[in-house]
Amino acid sequence: MILMIIIIVGVAIFCFTHGLIFIGIICLSGFSNKYGWSALIVTSIVLFIYGYWYIALAPLILIAWNLIALKFINKK
């Protein structure tokens, strides 16, 4: 949970400081149960387009981490 907060807030702050205000707001929607993953994917795509690939990987790693965790939690 802490890792999720650090990644989402960190990417949003990066977006705010680099003039991508709307993308930062979309990134903060990553906390939503309904739109969380799609908001993080949109954030990553836009950051890749702007050339910030090193930051764009963080939300994708978070999604992959959650998918792996869900797979192992549901196996029990």
Relevant terms:
single chain; 76 residues; mainly alpha; 4 helices; 80% helix; elongated
Percentage of residues assigned to helices? over 70%
Give the averaged pLDDT, no decimals: 87
The Cα radius of gyration reads: 12 Å
Largest sheet entry: none
**Strand proportion:** under 5%
Count of separate DSSP helical elements: 4
Shape: elongated
Q: Uncertain runs with pLDDT below 50, 5 residues or more?
A: none
Number of strands: 0
**What class, by secondary structure content?**
mainly alpha
The ordered H/E elements are HHHH
Termini separation comes to: 20 Å
Question: Short summary of the structure?
Answer:
This protein has helices spanning 2-17, 21-28, 36-49, 53-75. It contains four helices and no strands. It is mainly alpha-helical and 76 residues long.
Task: Give structural notes.
The chain is an all-alpha fold and 76 residues long. Helix content is 80%, strand content 0%. It contains four helices and no strands. α1 runs antiparallel to α2, α1 runs antiparallel to α4 and α3 runs antiparallel to α4. The longest helix is centred in the C-terminal third of the chain and has 23 residues. The radius of gyration is 12 Å and the shape is elongated. The mean pLDDT is 87.
Write the layout of secondary structure elements.
Blueprint: H1 2-17, H2 21-28, H3 36-49, H4 53-75
Helix pairs in contact: 1-2, 1-4, 2-3, 3-4
